[in-house]
């Protein structure tokens, strides 16, 4: 198993995971645009077969980062891959804070982020469109634990 920075050659596989994971996925063109930004950092986890099982896309600036998108391929879910990838990504980013938005009804993602130490810092009412209406987004923030803290 390997965790590495995303390469342009990975974008097709990431686009496929996006389509399977989200009702409003990032397109390949969106991914290329993100990838080409100087502030882009992306990581993926690939098991022994070499195909990406999950990924995390960040935009970084001024010692902080925003998690733009993360998802796990359907065949690779419930194996702890996302936790491993995000934990390693947070370490490699070496930033003072990471912020993200997540739908209030996404229980799996909320549990994942809580397990990584993200805290709720805000809410965007009616942010995500759903077939049955809109749901709020929670704004979550992660900060590294200072060395010497328990």
How would you explain this protein's 3D organization?
The chain is of the alpha+beta class. Helix content is 28%, strand content 38%. A 7-stranded mixed sheet has the order 1-2-3-4-5-7-6. Helix 3 (81-93) packs across helix 4.
Structure summarized in a few sentences:
This protein has 150 residues and is α+β, with helices and mostly antiparallel strands. It contains 4 helices and 7 strands. It has a single domain, classed as Gcn5-related N-acetyltransferase (GNAT) (Aminopeptidase).
Level of helix content? 25-40%
The overall pLDDT average reads 93
How would the global form be characterised?
Answer: globular
User: If you consult CATH, what is the topology?
Assistant: Aminopeptidase
Element string (H = helix, E = strand): EHHEEEHEHEE
Number of domains: 1
Total helical elements: 4
Estimate what percentage of residues fall within beta strands: 35-45%
User: How does CATH name the architecture?
Assistant: 3-Layer(aba) Sandwich
Q: Could you give me the name of the CATH homologous superfamily?
A: Gcn5-related N-acetyltransferase (GNAT)
Tally the beta strands.
7
Task: Kindly report the spatial arrangement of strands forming the biggest sheet.
Answer: 1-2-3-4-5-7-6
How many angstroms does the end-to-end distance come to? 30 Å
For the CA atoms, what is the radius of gyration? Answer: 15 Å
Please describe the biggest sheet, giving its number of strands, its sense, and whether it closes into a barrel.
Answer: 7 strands, mixed
Structural category: alpha+beta
What is the highest CATH level, the class? Answer: Alpha Beta
Low-confidence stretches: none
């Amino acid at each position: 198993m390997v965790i590495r920075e995303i390469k342009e050659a990975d974008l097709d596989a990431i686009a496929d995971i996006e389509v399977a994971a989200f009702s409003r996925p990032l397109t390949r063109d969106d991914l290329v645009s993100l990838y080409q930004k100087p502030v882009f950092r992306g990581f993926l986890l690939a098991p022994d077969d070499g195909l990406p099982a999950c990924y995390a896309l960040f935009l970084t600036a001024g010692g902080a980062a925003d998690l733009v998108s993360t998802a796990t391929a359907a065949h690779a879910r419930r194996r702890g891959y996302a936790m491993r990838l995000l934990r390693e990504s947070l370490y490699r980013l070496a930033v003072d804070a990471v912020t993200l938005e997540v739908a209030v009804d996404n229980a799996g993602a909320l549990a994942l982020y809580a397990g990584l130490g993200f805290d709720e810092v805000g809410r965007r009412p009616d942010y995500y469109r759903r077939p049955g209406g809109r749901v709020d987004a929670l704004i979550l923030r992660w900060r590294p634990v200072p060395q010497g803290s328990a």
